[in-house]
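hey m, so remember when u said the tokens were messed up on ur end? i reran from scratch. heres the input so u can diff it against urs
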Amino acid sequence: MGKENKIEKFIKPDELPDFLRKMAEAIETGKSEDMPGFTFMAGFKKLKINISHNLEQTTIKIKAKPAYESDEQKTDDGISGRLKYSSLKKRMGDSFKIIFKTIHAGSFPPGETVSQFIEDSKLMVTYEGYGDEYYEEYITACDTFENAVENNNIEEAHKACDSLNNIKAHCHSQHK
């Protein structure tokens, strides 16, 4: 994971709306003519903004954590071109968190999130020695979840999501 970028800026209180518009432009397009140093905000994983007003000055502090590095990394065993298992698991955890919360709120997660999670799940089960005995059951639950989402069946997606969570919990209790 890349390092965190930080900016601290002092402006007049009436300049805040314009500043936020320019910041939104930098996030949306990856560039801002008036704020060239803000290009790091495009594609962020986490963005924290702290705005405070003091008499005649507004202080803005921004911290941005870059998105994931390229999938082309060395694995734990030194093989090039395959994602490290720990990086894969981190990305899967982030995706599953979105999926779990969205499904339990009664709606479907973004299709891209589901696709990435399913793709990562299929890759995960190719790594040996990390709970192999759960892989078949896990992939079956992934297929059930994917079919439920494709068929817009929220009840089945909810059940499959819970099943995935249970399998993950059992596996992690033995292998973490």
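this time it looks ok to me. Residues 154-175 form the longest helix (22 residues). if urs says something different then somethings off w ur setup not the seq
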